[in-house]
Amino acid sequence: MLFKPTIWIKNVLCIDRDFLTEHGIDALILDLDNTLSLHGAPAAEQGIPEWLDKMRELGVPMMVVSNNTAKRVAPLAAKLGLDYTANGAKPLTPGINRALKKLGTDRKRTAVVGDQIFTDVLGGNLAGMPTILVEPFMLEKNVFFRMKRKAENLVFRRENR
Ligand SMILES: [Mg+2]
Known about the structure:
By secondary structure, this protein is an alpha/beta fold. It has helices at about 15-25, 50-55, 70-80, 95-105, 115-125, 140-160, and strands at about 5-10, 25-30, 60-65, 85, 110-115, 130-135. Magnesium ion binds near residues 31, 35, 114, 115 and 116.
């Protein structure tokens, strides 16, 4: 089933040494928007840089393959110390295959990680690689939390008047 991820997790922070061992994964091809950062955000989400460092300590080769432009991908990838392929055209496989060749890792042991079934999962499956679907980091959720915080602050102030 080409639309079905091999593994479905909440976010990349769930990937640790035991996870990789259990699923026989040595290397990661990572989506950028909504997988490592909010869509278009100039910085990664909380915990991502530290997680990347942990993966590097474990010796996990990683590369970003994004459908977004180099203008978007290059600055954040550089900040995170990751090599990248922009204009990846997922679910087409050339971008993914180019990254795999660069990594020089085993196709069956290199996972394609992303938040979208029709690009990341489909692309990885078409390339014959294991796929990991993550829940997208949603801007809406952050806006909601900000509103909630504001509401809480209003109540808090009122109570303290
Ligand atoms: Mg994405």
